[in-house]
Amino acid sequence: MQFAFTVSFHIIFPAMSIGLANFIAVLEGAWLKTGKEHYKDLCLYWSKVFAIGFGMGVVSGVVMAYQFGTNWAGFSKFAGPVTGPLLTYEVMTAFFLEAGFLGIMLFGWDKVGRRAHFAATVLVALGTLVSTFWILASNSWMQTPQGFAIENGRVVPLDWFKIVFNPSFPYRLFHMAIATFIVVALIVAATGAWHLLKGRRDPAVKTMYSMALWLLLALAPIQILVGDQHGLNTRKYQPAKIAAIEGLWETEHGGTALNLVGFPDMNTETTRYAVQIPHLGSLILTHSWDGEIQGLKEFPKEDRPNSSIIFWTFRLMAGLGMLMALLALLGLLLRRGGRLFENRLYQRFVLLMGPTGLIALIAGWVTTEVGRQPWVVYGVMRTVDAVSPISAQAVGLALMVFILVYFMVFGTGIYYIFRLLLQGPSATRVPPSAIPELDADHSGRRPMSAVE
Amino acid sequence: MSITTAWAAIIAFGLFMYVALDGFDLGIGLIFPFFPDDEERNMMMHSVAPVWDGNETWLVLGGAALYAAFPVVYGVALSALYLPIVMMLVCLIFRGVSFEIRGKAKRTKHLWDLSFMVGSAGASFFQGIILGAYLQGIPVTNESFSGDSFFWLHPFSILTGLGLMATYALLGACWLVMKMDGDLQRRLYGLVTPLTVVLLVFIVGVSIWTPMISVQIAHRWFDSGLLSRLIVVPFLVAIVALSMFIAIKHRREKTAFVLTLLLVLLGYIGLLVSVWPYAIPFTITLTDAAAPRSSQIFTLVGTVIIVPIILVYTTAGYWIFRGKVAQGAQYH
Q1: Of B290, B216, B53, nearest to A154 (Cα)?
Q2: What is the pTM of this model?
Q3: A104 to chain B: which residues are within 8 Å by CB?
Q4: Domain spanning B3-320: which superfamily?
Q5: Would residue A448 count as lying in a domain?
Q6: Domain assignment present for A209
Q7: Best interface-test mutation with A: which of B10, B13, B57 has the largest number of A CBs within 10 A?
Q8: In this structure, how many other beta carbons lie within 10 angstroms of the beta carbon of residue B140?
Q9: How far is A446 from A442, CA to CA, in rounded Å?
Q10: In chain A, which end has fewer C-beta atoms inside a 10 angstrom radius, N or C?
Q11: Domain residue limits, chain B
């Protein structure tokens, strides 16, 4: 429970960091290539947002690194020989890279040359992607484990290539990486929309709005295709998860209908108030008119994931994904008509869609994690065997502390991110040395940070 | 050298890097109360702003490498030290977030100062507590923790907690001496001397108490033939301490920092010698706790290649931000 809570929080900030780091690298590259100042403005502006998000990600990440041991001692002892090395590789190849070059990226503008600075930014962006690679290798292995034997009650790795490149890994990796870009595209577009609605028309605001919508147009359809492939993969390796996602109880012959909506009930083994479309289930999940999909009743009761939850989290994710594609297409139409920066109704729509990337990301994450239950390593170790031998009292106490701290601290972080977003990139460039005179109400000599 | 020993050495190295590097930036939070001026605080923060999260990454590496190479220790030690570790992490959160938010806040700036100080102090204190509890020995049955949630709370661990705070405070003060100049540097020097004395008192206290609290450590120190080799350590400590006072007197700013690191290293070596060859003193040996060979080898290959690269670019980072912090410098 505590783990689920901290993980959900943890996933928000890194997702933003991955997308933003790459966006910033592109901006800086564009600035170096074209020499247009508004690219640098945008680069500096989003770097500030990135810094807050990254700081939050680092501290919540430290918590994560130790929580495997504090709360999941059983899991650590059993699966540590596989997940431990993967985590260590992540720290060595990604965390150090990010932390090492972040300093130069944020504070090194005057200390190193333009090219060296750009290299630092690219390395930070690369670090975020490498990090995604390892963490998803580890997570995918828990979903579709292979390449190991079990000796003396613990996993012994046999073939690391098989472990890292396990069957669900490529799908999961691309699905997640694209998701982080979409998250950021939506946030950037919404920020742009907010400032367009406020009447700003300077190149920085227009550029970021336009770039984000182009990105969304490219990625939203690809994401739907990747997600579809991911679904086929899941049906092959985790059929119970698919059955639970679809709220499907019986194995139907000659084509399975799709439950569009409904309320799966784990006790009565039915999906109530289901609205069905014949054959659509088979069509989506097997890409054939009458493909067979196993129902939940094929699996023993104790092996079934909770369908009532993931039926809806999946629909939330997929539905939002469709909306994003629609948003991007509308954007293209408006662009062709030359009304992209003027259509207020559309800008409101973009603004509204701003947080949906994050919502879809979390919904998708819940779907895949809850869908793996009751296993922590699918088919190999049950979640109940994975917990630590510590008193419920201690865990309860720690959970309370974490909830309190997270809401206080990360609430503040989110508040400052919001403040930055509402402020927007600086409209006219003010060299830092020119600011102190404006700062009469403070100590006078101290340049205020551009944020204030 | 067996691969298990190599792993123990790597983790020991990682932890030392953590103490040496994050030690000084935690220390800055510890001596913050002595420097109430807002502008000076900005400069002090700025002196570590580009490097602090790299420093903290060594702690993450320590945790991850322990998990990879000795999963049993990771599971046992972390569930045993559950509450102090949680407290340490919470403190690190507050402190880390203060870095980002402090420079942006206006009305709540003093709150973030407070959160930075309390976070730094708490993180240092609980790290020391964890160290003390670890030395005392963790109750283990059948490769699982079998003690009480509060077993770590003991006068000895409180002593080590305070001792580590003194260590970090001195490291922080010496770091700032290198990075600041003028009147601020003069006042920092004024802090280094008493802090050195306090640290020496803690070193002596912990050294006397350690063999008293653990029969096995006493045995290892006095009856195992190690004594003749260990006896040089106190002398080295005395020499380093003396050099420290001379360095302060002659205002050798870099020497003071290096000597403090030497002091830390000496204490650290004493500690490693005391618990060797145990992973959890004195119930689980390193060999008992080792991960399967295939896990250790797979990770070792990467470590041998990547850690030197990390050291190169970390050094480059420090080089780029070398020299004194300019007057009026700010975090962002």
Answers
A1: B290
A2: 0.82
A3: 50, 317, 320
A4: Formate dehydrogenase/DMSO reductase domain (1.20.1630.10)
A5: no
A6: yes
A7: B57
A8: 18
A9: 8
A10: N
A11: 3-320
